[in-house]
Amino acid sequence: MQLWLKHEHFSTLIAHAQQALPQEACGVLLGVGDEVREVIALKNASPTPKTHYIIEPQRLIHAIIDGQKRGLGLVGLYHSHPSARPIPSTTDIMEAQYPDTPYVIISLKQAKPKIAAWHIHYGTVTPVALYIGDTRERDAIDEKLSRAQKIAIILAALVAVLLVLVISFSLLPPPPPLTMP
Ligand SMILES: [Zn+2]
Q1: Residue 83: which residues within 8 A CB-CB, separation 6 or more?
Q2: Distance (Å) from CA 175 to ligand 1 centroid
C-alpha cells in the first residue's frame, strides 16, 4: 500500500495544519487509486481540539459523496499533530475506523513539517509508503522508521489494546452474588 502526494497537495496539507494551530487540523484526501487529487479540509469537531480530532460522520459522508460526483474516491484521512511526531497516538489507534484507508499525519513538532502515512488495522499500525512529487517517476521519501519511532508505535498500540480490554471488562455485568446453602 502506498500513497502519492503531489507538491501542491503536500503544501496544502502543511498550510492547513499551520492555519489550524494551536488546534489539530483534519480532513480527507480524495483521489484515484493511490493518487491524491484533492485535499478537503474539514472542521475538527473535538471538544479538545488542541490534542484530538473528530471528523463528524455527516461531513465525511458529504465529502465522499461530493467527490464521487467528480470521479474521486476516498484515498486517505488526515490530521495534524501540532507538537507531536507524525505517528499515530494511542487515541488515533483506538478511534481509527477505516482499516483500509491510509491515515496521514502532519507533524509541526519541528521547524520543518513532516508527513507520514499509516494503516491502522484494528490496533495494528503499519507504515504506508508516501511518495511526494509531481510525476509518477517520483522522488521517494525514504520513510525508514527509526528505532525510537518503532518502539513508540508498539507502545501506543499496546496501550490501545490494554485500554480496550479495561473498557470491555468494566462493561461486564457484576458476578451474581453467592448463595449460601
Ligand atoms: Zn493524532
Answers
A1: 108, 109
A2: 37
How far, in Å, from the CA of 105 to the mean position of ligand 1? 7
72 CA from centroid of ligand 1 (Å) = 25
Residue pLDDT, tens place only, 48-68: 999 999 999 999 999 999 999
Asked, for residue 177, whether it belongs to a domain, the answer is: no
pLDDT tens by residue, 66-86: 999 999 999 999 999 999 999
Q: pTM (2 decimals)?
A: 0.79
Q: Does 86 reside within a domain?
A: yes
How far apart are the CA of 88 and the centre of ligand 1, in A?
A: 5
What separation in Å is there between the alpha carbon of 139 and the centre of ligand 1?
26
User: What is the CA(14)–ligand 1 centre distance, in A?
Assistant: 15
If one counts the domains in the chain, the total is 1
Q: Is residue 72 part of a domain?
A: yes
